[in-house]
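QA checklist item 7 of 12: single-chain prediction sanity check.
[x] sequence parsed
[x] length recorded as 808
[x] structure emitted
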Amino acid sequence: MPARTLVTLLTCLFMMLAPTGAVAAKKLPVWRIGIVVDGPWKREQHRLEVMKNEILALTSGEFDVRFPEDKILHGNWELSGVNRAINQLLRDPEVDLVLALGVVASAEVARRKNLPKPVMAPMIVGLQPSLPYKDGVSGVRNLNYLYAFNKAPSDVLLLHELYPFKRLAILMEPLTRRVIKRYELDKLFRQIPASEQYLIGAEGTPEEIVAQIPAEADAVMLAPLLRLSREEVTRLAELLIERRLPSISIFGGFEVEAGLLAATTTERDIQRLVRRIALNLQRIMLGEDPATIGVEFQETVRPIINMRTAHRLGISPTYDLMSSAEMIGDPDAVKPEPMTFNEAVALAIEHNLSLAVSQRSLAADGEDVSVARSNLLPQLAVSLDGREIDEDRAEASNGTAPHYQSSASLELNQLVYSERALANVRIQKLLQAGRELEHEAGVLDVVLDTTTAYLNLLRALELARIRNDDLAFTKSNLERARTRVQLGAANRAEVHRWESQLASARSLLIEANVGVSQSRVNLSRLVNKPLETRFDTTSPSLQDPYFLVSDKRFLRYISTPASVRILREYMVLEGLRNAPELERLNLAIEAQERAVESARNVYTHPVVGFGGKITEILSRGGAGTKPNPVTIPGFGTFQPENPANDNTDWQIGFNAELPLYSGGARSAEVRRAVQQLASLKYQRDNAMQGIETGIRVNLYGAGGAFANIQYARDRHEAARSNLEMVTDAYGRGAVDIIDLLDAQNAAVTAESAAANAVYDFLIQFMNLERAMGRFDFLMTEEERQAWYRRMETFFAEQGVRPAPKREF
């Protein structure tokens, strides 16, 4: 065998025996990142891990990113130490990129002109006089920084709105204070509304830090003090409260929860900053020059207020501020009452006052049946009679009418046959059954009102959140505009335009919050809760199992135009079958037919009855008790016997009555009953038409609203992406304020439309359910299965098959 053939065979054999998944692993480009911090942190260490994980997740599959432990350095809270750490990482051949995670480290590295490797400084506080900046980028090779902490003026304005202080103490790390003085960034703090400011290098224990605050200071601002542990921050907050010093935190988040009064930086801002750092690093790894990557980071301005601290300091925020703020620890706040969609419906059915009124009225009207039936049962009465007459008349009665007498009677009457009485019993039973169906329809109306109110509350809460976000975004742009004015990139008119936009955003937020309050009151009324009850709501989804449409079988019947057409017909039939209003009219018609029959039978059906009465004389006396003596000439005078010696009297009788003529009243009654019957039949036809119309209209509406959800979401996504791009361009001076305002308004409008689309569909769906006379979430599992069986049978009868079973 030739050698070449042998080699070929061995190669094929090796390939067949080799594991099928044995593929050479692709080697990814390695990026080793060195990190510099100002000094060792006592808290927030988890932030570093979160950022590492974000970077690793974002670059997974593209780069092999590493964070060597020996390349994470700190400057021991000394300026020289920070610069030594920076120099070490810049010279280290095993470091590909330097990340300066510290206010001082970012400031020091950003002022360097010659950087041998990519550097990112994401902790810049204010635009330093020596900081390179042109058209929104650094313009310095290998340098990218983020102008991230630029809300100091907004923070202090918030504190001033809460408490109009005169002298502000600003607590910061001594090293940070030194750098701020070095770069003349204290000018940034001179913009705040206070006659005096004290920049204090805070170090030591909380007690030692508070002792450094001048006695004349009446408010405090805290820069991040990372040398304090969480417990020490809590202690510092308590000491500030004891000194009656309102405080605001630049860092926000936990520090407000720990007891500081307020902040404008939220956890969401920190997460966005971490995400932005990761994105910028990814762009650098992909080959972009850091000098060309944007340096501005848009922070939101959303107040966070610790209401417990405010209460202890005797501070009460204004309604305007509370409308846009996140309030935590409110001692007077009522804890929201958890209530799901189904729970709201159950509460309304059980406790709604209009249903309670209807229930009691139904019970009262039900006694009409007993009253009608009583006419056919024996009527037994007992009476007691006593009388006294004039003595002269008693004398003249000759013993037939005593001066006084008492008696007792017992009377029994029984109606043997009466057409009107028999008809009335049947009619009242039918009318009561109709009233029960009317109550059932009232229950469905209350369920519809409650579900609509619940969804409207969710809608109002979502719109208020959107308006709150818009307000925070506008505040951020106002700060951006002020910065642009300082840099000479804009004039004061731009600031005034954002101030006008801010006033408009506040007005719209107040309007949205009013809508929330109104929706909350309406829902509270329907479930019979105190009208100011706050609810912790959850948004329902059509994927919830209590909706019929969550069943994948339903999707098979809306896949083709033919099946949708048959589905409409089926739903109309179901609606006509279930509608309590229609059944009530059917019962009313049956009752009226019996009334017509009764009116006609009066001509030939007599009223038959019998009765009896027994009377017993209990006592008699006085004049007239005995007959007067009789004198007969020649025979003398003698006393006649008293004819009333028998004290018991009784009678029994039988009666049959058939009126022959009543002046035409009976004929008029027949004609009236016939016309009323015809009117009820027309009412039934009208109700059927209304039910069918409601089902078809709401079905079309629900279909259109459902389709609009995705389009509204697409529009929202496009508008949001456009806003991000325009915002970035505005920060670089590439577009003017009008473009950004248009993009912002378009984004708010699109987000509102996306939220409205969901709730419009759900409300339309609830109206469809009401038109069909039943609600999915009130059906049992057996009723659901029966509903599907009827639908399958109906489709089979129409000769239309649903789409094949498949995943949707």
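[x] summary fact logged: The longest helix spans residues 419-486.
[ ] second reviewer sign-off
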